[in-house]
Amino acid sequence: MVFFSSLKNLFSRRDKRTSNASSLQQAASKKKGLAYSNGNQHSSNKSTAANSPANSTTNNSSNGHSFQYKDGRRYHGDSDVAYVLPNDDDEADRVHQQHWILRYALQSNYQAPVTDQLEKGITVLDSGCGPATWTFEMGEAWPNSTFHGIDASCVFPENIKPANVEFVIGNIAKEIPYPDNTFDYVHQRLLLLGLTNDDWENALKELYRVLKPGGYIELAEPDLQDLENMGPILRKLQYTMSDMLKSRNMPNKVACELEDRLIRAGFVNTKLKMTPLKLNHTDKAGKLLWDDYKHGYSNVRPVMAQIVPEWQDAEVYARFLADCGVEAEKNKTNVNWYACYAQKPTQ
Ligand SMILES: C[S@@+](CC[C@H](N)C(=O)[O-])C[C@H]1O[C@@H](n2cnc3c(N)ncnc32)[C@H](O)[C@@H]1O
């Protein structure tokens, strides 16, 4: 698989250089009492169904290592984090795969005009980095730059990583453990199932604080409510997603609000790009995106079933998703992908 061979290359490139980033994060983390991943901790992102009780909480003593187990799936255990997807191996594999599909469909890893800066060497934050496929790939592509990933859960590789990549555990909606004006470029993708309305406001305030004046921020999200050429079956799925998000005080159309939210947070020079992504039709990208879509919606079933109780039955839900796939193929449905970048004012 591309991902694994790419990772293998990364691993073999690792050297013993120490990075400024490491001491920067350690200092900030120590000061703020936050868990810092320095590569010496034991990685706990292991499969859970086999060795965990079906429903329980395990506290491994530090933030990001506290998990809840429900029906054989592992979730974060932080009551301040609104994220609804699991954080076990199955979900990490899905997110890795999703990265490659998005890169293939969008033909790029980013939209902001930062290529020259990345080449020269800048400091980058990947906010809500997850298993860090973007962070790793960018680290490998731009060895003169330094990449920091932050996530609420310890889902990123802790022990083996390129020398120019560092991770920290933290809730981006509370406090981002870096000094003011640290980063030249902040990237955040696919947090729509993780942040309430208040969380978005707090996170953007924090991202503004840690971005250098003149630095770029980029946010990217899909619109999961209104798809192009959407038939009645998919409409039920998408509007249930909206109802589920609204029931948790999460924005149900955050992709379409990215630009407004950035402006409200004080950023300037916004630029928005919308790309329709094919869902289960026309070519390989369409088929691959549908595989990921179906997988993602399967993983979010427990909270979707709180809105549509018949989906508590996994087989009923699986049949419903299969019907969605047939309908998307027939109607040539597209998911609209929004990427918005902006700058922190220089004064
Ligand atoms: C769908 S994954 C996306 C990962 C990555 N950005 C990507 O595009 O591949 C969302 C990630 O956001 C993280 N997350 C959710 N809420 C968070 C929060 N409040 N603070 C930090 N990370 C959060 C989750 O733990 C998860 O790893």
Structure keywords:
347 residues, alpha/beta, Rossmann fold, eight-stranded mixed sheet, three-stranded antiparallel sheet, 11 helices, 39% helix, binds S-adenosylmethionine, Methyltransferase domain-containing protein
Rg, rounded, reads 20 Å
CATH superfamily: Vaccinia Virus protein VP39
The main β sheet shows up as: 8 strands, mixed
CATH class: Alpha Beta
Query: Order of strands in the sheet with the most strands?
Result: 1-7-6-5-8-9-11-10
**What is the 3D shape?**
globular
SSE string, helices as H and strands as E: HHEEEEHHEHEEEHEHHEHHHE
Which small-molecule ligands are present, each listed once? Answer: S-adenosylmethionine
Q: What would you call the structural class?
A: alpha/beta
Number of E strands: 11
Proportion in β-strands: 15-25%
Number of helices, counting only DSSP H or I runs of 4 residues or more: 11
Overall mean confidence score, pLDDT: 85
CATH fold assignment: Rossmann fold
CATH architecture: 3-Layer(aba) Sandwich
Tally the structural domains. 1
Which segments are poorly predicted (pLDDT under 50) over 5 or more consecutive residues?
A: 1-54, 57-61
The end-to-end span amounts to 47 Å
Give a structural overview:
With 347 residues, the protein is an alpha/beta fold. It has a single domain, classed as Vaccinia Virus protein VP39 (Rossmann fold, 3-Layer(aba) Sandwich). It is 39% helix and 20% strand. S-adenosylmethionine (SAM) binds at residues 81, 83, 87, 95, 99, 128-130, 133-134, 151-153, 155, 171-173, 189-191, 194, 199. S-adenosylmethionine binds next to helix 3 and helix 5.
